[in-house]
Amino acid sequence: MAKESSSIPCTPLLKDELDIVIPTIRNLDFLEMWRPFFQPYHLIIVQDGDPSKTIKVPEGFDHELYNRNDINRILGPKAACISFKDSACRCFGYMVSKKKYIYTIDDDCFVAKDPTGKEINALEQHIKNLLSPATPHFFNTLYDPYREGADFVRGYPFSLREGARTAVSHGLWLNIPDYDAPTQLVKPRERNTRYVDAVLTIPKGTLFPMCGMNLAFDRELIGPAMYFGLMGDGQPIGRYDDMWAGWCTKVICDHLGLGIKTGLPYIWHSKASNPFVNLKKEYKGIFWQEELIPFFQSAVLSKECTTVQKCYIELSKQVREKLGKIDPYFTKLADAMVTWIEAWDDLNPPKVAAEVPNGPAKAK
């Protein structure tokens, strides 16, 4: 395996198989810094907020832009499942994409540098993460055994060394860490300067807090589970959109024998959001998550759930039954989960029925 490099390859990896999805309310000047890495790819921009506002995209980027009017026109009544005035609207881009892979990034994220001062091609590293197997069923103490200079350690079962297919690559951030509001208030000046040169597979049965600002996934393997919920305008909660998607996705990946990686690549997160505004958005979620986490930890999907859609519909029923008791919001969210799958299938008619066999998936 060739040594991994942060420089852009001569022929961009997956150039015709990957879309970059960006939610925004402002002009996308940040793309200038990403031009060497992003320009070969197609961009899907999801404009949040006032649809009459014109969003400027730097010249030379192949892109399509959708605002709220477009979402309403394309989805009709089902558009109610797409959040408004919240970055959760990005999942509309996942739905309308026709590519196999998705990379999503926030507009306050810039190119980071590794400890040698070299600019990090985050997209290239995500692609490498997705194209190599994951190891969710047994932890390798040298982390990613498929990287150059590493391998499976003594005692690792040979029967599991083919690994599982990787569904999600979760990247990290230098500078402004992804903290919740209480932590922001306690540590207003804290910055992440630690660059850890590692990629880990999150073990089966272990949940994690997924952040959507530097995230890639195999849309064909797990796309229908990447619903960022009902957040923002008219909803009692915000800033839990990516968390919700991550919990649902992890339960489904565990059931279908798929892997999720976290670690490299890093981006430079440039702007800390207002902790007081964040606290208002997160307030109920901070309490609710103490019941949400045990719910997802104990969630079990039936053997009949052989596709992501079937898994997601069954999970929505459990959300309605068990979380609906916490607050009526979760009954509304369960309805939206079903609507999301219906809208996904409307725009992405199943080829036959993409069934994923249970248990460890064979590496390709």
Automatic annotation (TrEMBL):
<dbReference type="GO" id="GO:0005829">
    <property type="term" value="C:cytosol"/>
</dbReference>
<dbReference type="GO" id="GO:0005794">
    <property type="term" value="C:Golgi apparatus"/>
</dbReference>
<keyword id="KW-0325">Glycoprotein</keyword>
<feature type="glycosylation site" description="N-linked (Glc...) arginine">
    <location>
        <position position="154"/>
    </location>
</feature>
<protein>
    <recommendedName>
        <fullName>UDP-arabinopyranose mutase</fullName>
        <ecNumber>5.4.99.30</ecNumber>
    </recommendedName>
</protein>
<dbReference type="GO" id="GO:0071669">
    <property type="term" value="P:plant-type cell wall organization or biogenesis"/>
</dbReference>
<dbReference type="GO" id="GO:0071555">
    <property type="term" value="P:cell wall organization"/>
</dbReference>
<comment type="function">
    <text>Probable UDP-L-arabinose mutase involved in the biosynthesis of cell wall non-cellulosic polysaccharides.</text>
</comment>
<comment type="similarity">
    <text>Belongs to the RGP family.</text>
</comment>
<keyword id="KW-0961">Cell wall biogenesis/degradation</keyword>
<feature type="site" description="Required for activity">
    <location>
        <position position="161"/>
    </location>
</feature>
<keyword id="KW-0333">Golgi apparatus</keyword>
<dbReference type="InterPro" id="IPR037595">
    <property type="entry name" value="RGP_fam"/>
</dbReference>
<dbReference type="GO" id="GO:0052691">
    <property type="term" value="F:UDP-arabinopyranose mutase activity"/>
</dbReference>
<keyword id="KW-0413">Isomerase</keyword>
<dbReference type="InterPro" id="IPR029044">
    <property type="entry name" value="Nucleotide-diphossugar_trans"/>
</dbReference>
<feature type="site" description="Required for activity">
    <location>
        <position position="154"/>
    </location>
</feature>
<dbReference type="InterPro" id="IPR004901">
    <property type="entry name" value="RGP"/>
</dbReference>
<dbReference type="Pfam" id="PF03214">
    <property type="entry name" value="RGP"/>
</dbReference>
<dbReference type="GO" id="GO:0033356">
    <property type="term" value="P:UDP-L-arabinose metabolic process"/>
</dbReference>
